[in-house]
Amino acid sequence: MKLLRETIRKLLLSEAAKNILDLPPDVYIGIDDMDDEIAIFFCDSEGNSKRLGNINMELPPRAAGPCNGAYLITWVEATSGYGPLLYDLAMEYATKKGGGLTADRKTVQPEAIRIWDYYASQRGDVNPIQLDAYEDGTDKSCRMKAAKNNNPDWKQSALSKAWKKSDVILSQLEASQKIVYV
What we know:
This protein is α/β, with parallel strands linked by helices. It contains five helices and eight strands; from the N terminus they run αββββαβαβαβαβ. The strands form two sheets. It has a six-stranded mixed beta sheet with strand order 5-4-3-2-1-8. It has a two-stranded antiparallel ribbon with strand order 6-7.
């Protein structure tokens, strides 16, 4: 029964996830890159938000450690089905910038944990980079309360990794002139 529930969850996540072909013709991807902080969101051709969703990421504060150059997710909000697309876009952009993308170091919502777990178990197009850990489960490069609390063997957790992805979607959006830099 548990296996059946997990299979149904995975199927729903994969089928519910939208891709760029699902974007209405008047919807673009906005990218506001301030180097240490980046916002990616759905917008019109002028860069005005369409309120379908946004994802924010930033380099970790100096006190937290460098996280191997990975950007941390700091905020995600999306209408149904658009969250995974935002994660993919953020991961591709963060990979282009350097260290890839990792989960927030303080809190991770259950929906986000499912997305990270899906990357770990179902997505062959993403590459995990294990963040360093001491034997006691703390991350010496980037403090990780969320993974330590959710999985006692946090090196096995998708949250203990930075993730990289080649820029397939971003390249498609660039080619179709669907990205607005603000």
